[in-house]
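BUG-434 | component: ligand-complex export | severity: low

The export step for 2-acetamido-2-deoxy-beta-D-glucopyranose jobs runs without errors, but we want the raw record kept on the ticket for reference. Input record follows.
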Amino acid sequence: MQMSHIDDIPSTPGKFKMEKSPYFHRLRWHTSLAKLTFWPIVFLGVLFIVFFRSPSSSPLHSDPSRRSLRTYNWGGSAWEKRVRSSARVRSRNGISVLVTGAAGFVGTHVSAALKRRGDGVIGLDNFNDYYDPSLKRSRQALLERTGVFIVEGDINDSALLRKLFEVVPFTHVMHLAAQAGVRYAMENPSSYVHSNIAGLVNLLEVCKSANPQPAIVWASSSSVYGLNTKVPFSEKDRTDQPASLYAATKKAGEEIAHTYNHIYGLSLTGLRFFTVYGPWGRPDMAYFFFTKDILNGKSIPIFEAANHGTVARDFTYIDDIVKGCLAALDTAEKSTGSGGKKKRPAQLRVFNLGNTSPMPVSDLVSILERLLKVKANRNIMRLPRNGDVQFTHANISYAQRELGYKPTTDLQTGLKKFVRWYLSYYSNGKKAAE
Ligand SMILES: *[C@@H]1O[C@H](CO)[C@@H](O)[C@H](O)[C@H]1NC(C)=O
Ligand SMILES: *[C@@H]1O[C@H](CO)[C@@H](O)[C@H](O)[C@H]1NC(C)=O
């Protein structure tokens, strides 16, 4: 059954192609003594390699909260070379950024935009199967063509994160990896704890120990406003009534961010995304599976609140979100700590990134009908009380003032771009995932 969790951020991706090991070279042996010592040396060498690489293949890396257990391979000189080359800054005053969740929807677009303007970028993604991993693979291929390498691994893997910081002294971290989805939290609650809490803490632990400490921009969510009814949603409104475990873990993230800022001087900026949509989007989002179901002649569930109340979302086009993310990185001040202590107070910010014009979900469907030239089979249903809220509406004046954030794409224009992408992507022999 498909569900309409219409409001979140991208999930994380990841699979891995093994690099050919650079450890063994052809050797020439001229003396019989050398021949005699060859095999013992090879044996010791193999032992050595197994010992030092074991953190990347130990059971620590298999995570029971994922639907597919998986270990990741990383390390080695060829791997480090790829990491360095991808992270190389090519423009003057460029930054070097670790982007987590880089094979996700927002992660892919942000990584590509950073790379385009000459920043150094390394992606990190676990390529989990929360939604069709082949879409994440396609995004990865797209990024590879622009010169962005995505490391396959989990944000909860501290050995991997430390290794990345050892290889590249990142100036910034763009943390977009997360378990997304509002309803899925009832099916798999531990994956939210794993990614959005344990993973975040692990990442911040590594960042606070890094020298120099990076500045961190990360994805919170408009869902933190929960049952708040005051509109438009402003950053200062109460966010202590989450309506889903997803929202609760994002709210927890904001508090965890406060702690790491307060104790360790990490510069932290949280971005509350409002229903991001566009090309290469997430198949679990309503606009995406509505498109698929309309084309397949399947009925689509359209929720309404009590007394036929309209369910509306502040749909925000991906290009506008990307501009907001880059502006957040560019205005982030340096972290102020080192050696586990802060030297002076560091920057701590939270911004709404929305579009300021909520649209009824039924209007979204009408636009899709026109673009697809197919009539939708609408199934009006009562909004269940298990995660989704009735409406979202962002007050973006703070982001406007501090980031120069100004969304310019309306829903009609954005959906047209999405539909064009969708039709071309899925007509190339690729099947939309169930
Ligand atoms: C995260 O990783 C640590 C080891 O780095 C492990 O002990 C812990 O169980 C992991 N947490 C989750 C929720 O998977
Ligand atoms: C929007 O937020 C700003 C603070 O950033 C506040 O001053 C303003 O009153 C809010 N506007 C509305 C309409 O709530």
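Assignee comment: Attached the raw record above. The first helix runs from residue 32 to 53.
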